[in-house]
User: Fold this.
Amino acid sequence: MLTSIPVTEISPRCSTCGMGQLCLPVGMSQQDLLKMDTLVQERVRVHKGETLYRMGDPLTAVYAVRFGTLKTHVTLEDGRSQITGFHLPGEIVGLDGLGEMQHASDATALEDAEVCVVRFSELQALSGDLPSLQTQFLRLMSKEISQDQVMLMTLGSMRAEERLAAFLVNLSERLSARGYSSSEFVLRMSREEIGSYLGLKLETVSRLFSRFAEAGLIQIRQRHVKLIDMAGIKQIYNRSC
Amino acid sequence: MLTSIPVTEISPRCSTCGMGQLCLPVGMSQQDLLKMDTLVQERVRVHKGETLYRMGDPLTAVYAVRFGTLKTHVTLEDGRSQITGFHLPGEIVGLDGLGEMQHASDATALEDAEVCVVRFSELQALSGDLPSLQTQFLRLMSKEISQDQVMLMTLGSMRAEERLAAFLVNLSERLSARGYSSSEFVLRMSREEIGSYLGLKLETVSRLFSRFAEAGLIQIRQRHVKLIDMAGIKQIYNRSC
DNA sequence: CGTGAGATTGAAGTCCATCAATGGTTGTGG
DNA sequence: CCACAACCATTGATGGACTTCAATCTCACG
Assistant:
C-alpha cells in the first residue's frame, strides 16, 4: 500500500530541497521560497509497481517527484495502453487532471519512489499572495504541453531508430540536469515500456539497441546503458534525409 | 498581412460573445463576466494561409479563436513537419509558449479567421482580482495536456483506420458543441494536413475515406463529409480486437 | 540453485509508404 | 467568360519498415 509520511519540523522542506532548481520553486527569491514551506504537508512513498493514482480518480492534489521514477499511462477499453511519460525527480505529475478535477491517466512507480503531495486547495490559497508560484505553475503546465507536442512530432513523423535515439538523448539530458552521468545510466523501464512510450513493439526496441551497439554508438547490457558516441546518436535524428 | 482590429465600445465583448460557454469565460458569474470585458483590447484578422505566430517568436499574448479554423504545427530542421492541432472557435492557441515566453509552434489559418488577442500582462493583472479567470485558465491548459495525451495514444497505438475514425468523431463532436451539424460538415484541411496530424500519408487518408464510403459509413465528396453510420464509425476504434 | 520474467534473435507476414499516373476543382488572367 | 494552370484528390502497383510469431537466452530474485 501507499505509505503516507507527514512532513514535520525536521523534514526537508521546499526551501532546503535539492530539487529546488528543477521543481516548483525555480527562480524564486529566498523570501518566496520560505513561504513555499507550508505548501507540502504530506509525502507519499510509492513502491515499485504501485499506483499513485488511476484514471478517473478525483483529483485533490498534484505530485512532485522527490526520488524514484514514475510512468504515466492511459488505457483504452480494449486493453491497449500507451505510456505518456516517464517522470524523474523534480517533475510534477497529475497536471492533466486539473481540467476536470479528476485524473486523466494512471501513475505507476517504476522503482521505489517518493512524491510530495501538493494539495490543490493549498496551491490556490498560497498562489494568492505568492504570484511567483502562480507564474511558475503556469510555466510548468506550458512546458508539459510543449513536451507533449514534441512527442507528437516524434510519434507522427519519425522512424523507429530516430525515436529511440531521441529518447536516449532526452533521458541523458534530464539525468544530467539532476546530477547523474549523462553518458552512463540504468533504464528504469522495460523494453516493452520504452516501446509503448515510443509507439513501437518491444522486439523492435531490442533490435534497435542491438544495432546501435553494433554500430558503436552505445554499449548496452540489459538495462545498463553507456552512450559512446553522442554525436553519432544525435545524427540519427538530425540528418536531413 | 495580419489586420489588427481595435475593440471599441460597440464591438462585441466577452460578456456578449456567443463563444462564452466554450472559451475563457466558461462558468463565470455575470459579475465576473463583466470584468472580463477589459481583457481583450484587440482582435486580429488572419487570412487563409497567413501565419499568426511562428515558432521562436517572443510571446506577448495567447489567442482565442473567434471565427475560422487554425492549425498549429511544429517543424524539424530537415523540413519534416507535424500538425499538432486544429483549432475551432472558442479554443485558445499559444498556450505551449508560456513556459519560455516564446512560441513553441507555428499557427496558420486554414480559412479566413479572427482571433481575440489576450495579452499575457492583462491576463496576469486581471487574474489578481478575478480568481475564476485564474481557475478557468488552468483548466484550459490542463485540458490541452490531456487532449495531447489522447493524441499520443492515437499516434502510438492505433491503426490508420482507427485514427481516421477517431478524428472524424472528434471533429464532429467539436462542431456540434459549436452549433454546427454533427453529421455533415466541410473539412477545412487538406488530405495532407489530416495525414500530418494523424501520422499518415495523404494517399492513406484518401484511401481510407474511400473505404469508409464504400462500407457505407460516410459519404465524401472532396472536403464535404456526411457521417452516415456514426455507430459504425465509433466501432472502428472501440472494437475490442 | 532453480525459476520465471524480461531480453534477444530469426523468419514470415502485414500495414502503410512510396512511386506513378490520372482525374477533378478552383482560381486567375487574358 | 473561358482556358489554362496549379493544386488537390484518387487509385493502382510495388516495396520496405515494423509487427507478429516463435524459439532460445540471460539474469535477478526468491
